[in-house]
Design a protein that fits this description.
The complex is a heterodimer of chains A (about 900) and B (about 110).
Chain A: H1 2-11, H2 13-33, H3 38-45, H4 48-59, H5 62-80, H6 82-111, E1 122-130, E2 136-139, H7 144-153, E3 158-164, E4 167-171, E5 180-187, H8 191-194, E6 201-202, E7 218-221, H9 223-230, E8 240-243, E9 246-253, E10 269-272, E11 287-293, H10 299-319, H11 330-337, E12 340-345, H12 352-389, H13 391-399, H14 404-440, H15 456-482, H16 486-491, H17 498-532, E13 543-554, H18 556-567, E14 572-578, E15 589-590, E16 604-609, H19 613-616, E17 623-624, E18 636-640, H20 641-647, E19 657-659, E20 666-673, E21 688-692, E22 705-714, H21 723-732, E23 737-744, H22 745-752, H23 754-788, H24 790-798, H25 803-835, H26 848-874, H27 878-884
Parallel strand pairs in A: 5-10, 7-9, 16-21, 18-20
Antiparallel strand pairs in A: 1-2, 1-11, 1-12, 3-11, 4-5, 6-9, 7-10, 8-9, 13-22, 13-23, 14-22, 15-16, 17-20, 18-21, 19-20
Helix pairs in contact in A: 1-5, 2-3, 2-4, 5-14, 6-12, 6-14, 6-15, 7-10, 12-15, 12-17, 12-23, 14-15, 17-23, 17-25, 17-26, 23-26, 24-27, 25-26
Chain B: H1 2-8, H2 11-21, E1 25-26, H3 27-37, H4 49-59, E2 62-68, E3 74-80, H5 82-108
Antiparallel strand pairs in B: 1-3, 2-3
Helix pairs in contact in B: 2-3, 2-5
Classes of the chains: A alpha+beta (about 900), B alpha+beta (about 110).
């Protein structure tokens, strides 16, 4: 009760004083009433003022009362300079909000532990090896037979868990008409028990579900999917769902928080590993492998022996795998076998999104932090200027007995007040911006999904940030204020340059940060522009892509008939078929063997295309001809220029032949096309060959096609306008073909640059903010220094200084600071750029333009920002100044 | 003033004792009670009573309450709390031992 009442009393200080006064007065009246002389009663009582003070200090939390007084005083100070205070709060809010938003994204994607037990004991197995181009690559995907061998080998010390990546799969519930997409993940039966997960409904998969191919047709829904799709209907148990020609029975619903181990995507359906046909193949590397250490196993000592053991088992498996390397030259086999198994902590999950965005988000975090620092420097400058203006007040306070601690408290109180307002605004900004940025990482057919809870982790970070800001803002001015020497200050003789020196240092710091932000931004923006303007070699105009599936496969003739029928639909210009779209998610390579020699070390990518596909895509022929309708594969092939360079250097390729691997049928080159990007716009050109859509199988019979993409050039500007009617048109033909996904070639190209677009947009935004803040800061400092030196300028003018001399006096040291800061910023920029080099496209940090751009921007900003102050200095009227003195 | 000094250390004890015998007294009445029962020997500067009262109130030994007097003005009256009773016991025994010790010294020398 005591502390609480003292805190309450501190808030109601005046009322407390009145009460004490009343009590003391009532005592004196009592004394008079009992017969004392009034004067005598007052004399015996002693000084009421002193007793009141004594009682007051007893009944009040003194620190709180002085704090409240400081807060009130600071509030009035802030209100007095409304515009500056508002600018300070807004810029700080922007900085704090950006930092918190960046933290939320980084934390959610990279750091937040999965909602499972023992997440710190979870590791992912991966392998480092040398890629086909001689660069180091990583392979985190494993064959199931290999996984089983490794699992059994280390079962005393650790459990191995197999989990496939979430694949967007066509599923049907009852009839063919209601086909839809769901993220399906195959897991080994030990995953749920090892993660300590409990079902919301029914049962989860167990190790017994690993029995064998087709033995466990069971499906577990994720809570999220159950919630969205079934509205938490408990009768969902026992329903069946179909994937391809398989049927699964729903046996349970997973726990509420668990959305899979692939951070950034949300699993809808968990299926047993053994139900995937790839699970029996030795050469299908299709799922990730996780390792959970057994209780009591010390990671520090156990990991390395485990690694070596697993590595030996896996290598023995691959070396003994006859179908893995059939017909490959020894050099490739050696390269593939010679790899190093590594563990990665996987407590926060493992996903491609993490890999793709780790550095990008790191850079965004850095940019946000820099903007916050710039804002802090600005506000600290403002406070230094105010403190300098209040030097006399501080001196007065010290001389009438204020403790240095009170002065520090007073200044820190002001910065805390600013930071508090800023953090409230910043919290709103972060609450809006983090989901917004996430929504930008958003290919239309596979949006990134991350939980972004505002929980104690975020609050703790925010609190730490505010503390940091308060210290950054307040500490320097506070220390300066507390070091004030009353005598000197009251005489007006304190060193007038000291605060300006401090502010000039701040300018250099600010320009350095700003330059770093600008430098990185210009690199990212240029990267994005170059990537976006990269010549594609094909047209994206009015190209609708219907990704179509045929459940049990259909002969090419049916596909061709459908294409023919589509051509007759009004609004359709031309129709062609390809196995899959360019720049889509599918990429398949093939060994190339020329003249019966063993396959060369580099493989080539291929694509099945129908006649007319090249012209629909507006890909020209360098030489030769397009496919004829009677062409089939293997027989005719069209290759790109890189293919010619790789396999037929210096020869005319038309009429030459190659095989897809050793002892395969011959393909005859009938045409050559320019290079077009196949899978990734950033990669250099790869050898690519096209083969006819019609494929002949082993017994000279046509091969069935399970999926292909209709490439449709529409007459209308917006190809998607036709999408739905074409989808129905295909469904109504009832020939087993069904459109599973609709997109446009333009969207596929745009999806390629999502990351670059995101980072370029945000970097440009941060650069603009940084420039604006730096400009404001520069203006404020210069303006202040001119105001402070009015006397000096007036005297100089009076004794004949030229205008140029005045301008030099005012601006020289500031521009020196700017130059210094810019150099420091560029040096920092080189360091930072090296860390994110992999994000650049055809841009080098050492390009002259990349340095010139930020330098010019800063110089321009500096000129604009200094102009008002210079004009003010030039307009100084010496007579007026000297008269005023 | 020697009288004040004599009271200094033991003001708490006296106030607690008086409130334990006669609960719900206001400041003047406590002062008067001290003066009366001590035969006018113990008299403090009366104002210094109030900081002491407020300190004991914050410590939770006594509890205060405003009442309306017949004259229409308000008075603040005090009474002992449970913690105050305990404190009184402690103070009393401390006083006994101290005065015993002092008496012993006076006798011996």
């Amino acid at each position: 009760m005591s502390l609480w009442s003292r805190i309450l009393n501190a808030v109601h200080g005046e009322r407390l004083n009145r009460e004490i006064e009343e009590e003391l007065q009532s005592h004196i009246e009592e004394a008079i009433a009992s017969g004392h002389d009034p004067d005598e009663a007052r004399r015996i009582f002693g000084s009421t003022l002193r007793q009141r003070e004594a009682s007051h200090s007893i009944r009040v939390a003194g620190w709180l009362e002085s704090l409240l007084a400081d807060v009130r005083f600071c509030w009035r100070q802030l209100c007095r300079n409304k515009v500056t205070s508002l600018a300070a709060v807004l810029s700080l809010a922007l900085g704090i909000g950006s930092c918190v938003a960046a933290f939320r994204l980084i934390d959610a994607l990279l750091w937040r532990p999965l909602p499972i037990s023992n997440s710190s004991k979870l590791y992912a197995l991966s392998r480092k090896l040398t890629g086909p181009e001689g660069r180091p690559i990583e392979d985190g995907y494993w064959a199931t037979p290999d996984f089983k061998l490794m699992r059994d080998a280390v079962k005393d010390q650790a459990d191995l868990i197999a989990i496939s990546d979430a694949d967007r799969t066509d599923i049907t519930w009852s009839t063919d008409d209601d086909m839809e997409k769901a993220h399906v993940v195959y897991v080994s039966g030990n995953m749920f028990p090892l993660f300590g997960l409990e079902p919301t409904l029914g049962r989860l998969l167990v190790p017994a579900d690993d029995r064998g191919p087709g033995a466990s047709p069971y499906a577990v829904l994720s809570w999220d999917y159950w919630n969205h799709h079934f509205g938490r209907d408990p009768h969902v148990l026992g329903r069946s769902l179909h994937i391809g020609d398989q049927t699964f029975e729903i046996i349970g619903v997973g726990p509420r928080d668990f959305t899979g181990t692939e951070t950034g995507s949300v699993t809808d359906i968990f299926l047993p590993l053994s139900m995937n046909s790839a699970a029996t193949q030795n050469n299908a590397f299709w799922h990730r492998t996780f390792m959970m250490l057994k209780p009591g196993v010390n990671p520090a000592t156990a990991l390395e022996p485990l690694r070596q053991h697993l590595s030996a088992v896996s290598r023995a498996f691959e070396a003994g795998c006859s179908e893995c390397f059939r017909g490959l030259p020894q050099a490739i086999i050696d390269r593939v076998l010679n790899k190093k198994l590594v563990f990665y902590p996987a407590g926060s999950g493992i996903s491609d999104l993490q890999k793709d965005y780790r550095r990008s988000l790191g850079i965004l975090g850095l940019l946000a932090a820099l903007v916050l620092l710039i804002a802090c420097v600005n506000v600290a400058n403002m406070m230094t200027a105010q403190a300098a203006a209040r030097a006399q007040e501080m001196a007065l306070r010290v001389s009438i007995g204020a403790g240095r601690r009170r002065l520090v408290q007073l200044i820190l109180c002001q910065s805390a007040l600013l930071a508090l307002f800023a953090s409230v605004l910043g919290a709103f900004f972060a609450a809006w911006s983090a989901p917004f940025v996430l929504s930008l990482i958003n290919p239309p057919d596979n949006p990134a999904r991350l939980a972004l809870p505002a929980d104690w982790r975020v609050f703790l970070f925010g609190f730490g940030l505010i503390l940091l800001v308060v210290l950054l803002l307040g500490l320097l001015p506070a220390l300066r204020a507390s070091a004030v020497r009353p005598v000197a200050a009251l005489k007006g003789g304190q060193d007038p340059h000291s605060s300006r020196r401090l502010m000039r240092g701040a300018i250099a710091l600010q320009v350095a940060f700003c330059c770093l932000v600008l430098f990185l931004s210009s690199l990212f923006v240029t990267s994005f522009q170059r990537l976006q303007n990269r010549p594609l070699g094909f047209s994206t105009d009015r190209l609708l892509l219907l990704e179509t599936v045929a459940g049990k496969g259909q002969f090419p003739v049916v596909w061709n008939q459908t294409a023919e029928a589509l051509r007759a639909v009004p609004g359709v210009d031309s129709v062609a078929i390809s196995g899959w779209p360019l720049l889509g998610r599918i990429m398949i390579d093939s060994d190339i063997s020329v003249n019966g020699a063993p396959p060369s070390l580099t493989a080539a990518w291929f694509l099945n295309v129908s006649p007319g596909w090249l012209s629909t895509m507006k890909i020209p022929l360098v030489s030769g001809r397009d496919f004829h309708p009677q062409d089939a594969s293997p027989e005719a092939a069209i290759v790109n220029e890189t293919f010619v360079k790789a396999y037929f250097p210096g020869q005319d390729p038309i009429g030459r032949t190659f095989e897809r691997g050793a002892n395969q049928p011959l393909n005859t080159i009938v045409g050559v096309t320019p290079d077009v990007p196949y899978h990734d716009m950033r990669e250099p050109s790869r050898p690519v060959f096209y083969v006819p859509f019609d494929e002949i199988g082993d017994q000279s019979a046509p091969k069935v096609v399970n999926f292909a993409t209709f490439t449709i050039h529409t007459a209308a500007q917006d190809p998607l306008a036709l999408a739905n009617s074409l989808r129905q048109f295909i469904a109504q033909r009832h020939n087993g073909l069904r459109v599973s996904n609709i997109t446009t070639q333009l969207d596929l190209v745009r999806d390629q640059t999502i990351r670059e677009r995101l980072i370029a947009t945000l970097a440009a935004f941060f650069a603009a903010v940084a420039l604006l803040l730096a400009g404001i800061g520069l203006y404020a400092v210069l303006n202040y220094s001119v105001l402070q030196r009015r006397r000096e300028i007036g005297i100089r003018m009076a004794i004949g200084s030229t205008r140029a001399g005045i301008v030099r006096l005012v601006t020289l040291d500031v521009f020196l600071m700017i130059a210094l800061g810019a150099c420091a910023g560029v040096v920092l920029g080189f360091g930072a750029a090296r860390y994110v080099e992999s994000l650049f496209y055809q841009v080098k940090a050492t390009d002259a333009a990349m340095i010139a751009l930020p330098a010019c921007a800063i110089l321009l900003t500096a000129l604009v920002a200094t102009l008002p102050a210079v004009l003010r200095a030039l307009r100084t009227d010496p007579t007026e100044i000297l008269r005023a003195e | 003033m020697p009288k004040t000094d004599a009271l200094q250390g033991s003001l708490d004890l006296l106030v607690l004792k008086i409130l334990s015998r006669r609960p719900r007294l206001h400041g003047y009445a406590i002062m008067a009670a001290i003066a009366n029962t001590s035969g006018e020997v113990l008299r403090a500067e009366q104002g210094s009573l109030y900081p002491a009262l407020h300190r004991m109130e914050e410590a939770g030994w006594i509890r205060a309450e405003w009442i309306k007097k017949d004259t229409g003005r308000r008075a603040r009256i005090y009474e002992l709390t449970a913690a105050g009773k305990k404190q009184l016991g402690a103070e009393e025994s401390r006083w006994q031992s101290v005065s015993l010790a002092i008496n012993r010294v006076l006798r011996e020398v």
